[in-house]
Amino acid sequence: MTKKKQLKKWLSIVPVALMTVTMSGTTMIPSTAQAALSQSFNDVPANHWAYAAVTKLAQAGIVTGYDASYYKGDKTITRYEMAVIVAKAIDKYDTANDTNKQTIDKLSAEFASELNKLGARVAKVEAKTNTWLGGETRFRYMGNDAKAPGMVKLHGSDSMEFRQRIKFNANINDNMSFFARMNATTKAGNMASGDGTAFTTDIFAVTAKNTLGFDSIRAGRFPFDPFTHGLFGKAIGVDGARFDKNIGTTRFTGSVNNIVGNGSALNTGYNADGTKSATGDAQTLTTAQLNFKVNNNVNVMGGYYWSDVSGTSSTNGTGGTMNITTGDSFKNSKGWAVGFDAKLSDKLLLIGDYVSTSLNNVSGTHLSDSPKGWAVELTNATKFPPAFYGAKPLVDYKKVNDFGWSVSYRSVDAGAVPYGINGFDGQAVSYTSGTAYPTYLKGQDNIKGLFVALANTVAKNVVWTIEVQDLKIKDSNLTGGVTDLGKTYLSKIEFFY
């Protein structure tokens, strides 16, 4: 009886051990022992869609060690061997883009039975094919020089911030998925005020594949990511819809989004008695963009946008939507943008964006009605979809000692990018009210500056990041001679689970 128990124990351990060796970074083609173990599984036919799907994931860096030439001709692989590859792809799920996530979902559903039989991440695979939860915990310390007149330095407990996120994922059916995220943020010592005890939902979105002639349609509340590499962007949710369609090596992306909340001073309507109400018309941004794949290492993009968001200013830099003090304003804007991303090597990526805008109904004599803006970044984060940090991570939080860095520079005229969608807002820490030139809200308007970020996975699922920015006013004629906003500092540690 004892020998039988020991035999059963080893039979249960061997598949998991082999899976572990495979996922540790060794070749995806099975060893002799693995091949012997997989003989009880049927072959995957040479014309099976899974081969092309896994090859795409390998090209994207989601799986490594996969040799697409292995199955050519009469060399097929078994469903066991394919399940091993899929398991490794699942392990990289959180770093994949939307298209690759959908591919992993489809593969995990196809080979769920084999993965389950082998004991390889059973709970995780079942979750990926139905519903699962995740979370993030963040602690960060922030500081700023606040050199401009009227600016206030972060002080006391305001320099320490805590954030908790809870993420919900679900596959509704083969063509539809759902993602939502709840968020609570608090400053140190603010528990008594209720800060941090109330969760807000900054993301809830449904994505449908192969719908209405598009490859995918995403609707709901989500980060803004359909236009440029992040010169136009927002990390927390905007409400609207995104449409994607691949045509050969070209991808079309369109979007319609409300980028300024109803509670904003920009979005105030009127009651029947003529008094102002707390809600009003949506401040809408509409975009259309084409992304061309020049080759395996270079992409270029170009698009157009229309914005209903107005531009305002104050006389001391504490209010309005632009970093100007002349009192000038405009009603709405439109413009075009171009960009590129070039993978210079396996560990070096260059990204650039440029925008040219036309402001409508400009009031005042100081503000240009044709502002421009641009940003560039050099980074070693080549394994993620090309986007400015922090629209993308710098490291894989599951890979211990993974090190990432980013150096970027931006130079953006006043009004060049609509308020509420400035991609670098929120990166430069500051008070949001009661101070001049709040870079947290206007860190990309009438600003030029250098941004450096370093990140390291100090333990599995634990990332430490340091950020430093040196920000200047681009056109001091619009600020009464103010030129220097000083440096901002940030150190944060994040836990993923």
From TrEMBL:
Q: Does the keyword Signal apply?
A: yes
Stored InterPro entries = Cell_Envelope_Struct_Comp, SLH_dom
Task: Kindly state which keywords UniProt assigns to this record, in alphabetical order.
Answer: Signal
Keyword Ubl conjugation present in the record's keywords: the answer is no
Question: Where do the SLH domain residues begin and end?
Answer: 37-100
One Pfam match: SLH
Q: Name the domain of life.
A: Bacteria
Signal peptide (residue range): 1-35
Q: Which PANTHER family match?
A: OUTER MEMBRANE PROTEIN ALPHA, OUTER MEMBRANE PROTEIN ALPHA-RELATED
Instruction: Give the protein name, as stated in the record.
Output: SLH domain-containing protein
Species in which this protein is naturally found: Sporomusa silvacetica DSM 10669
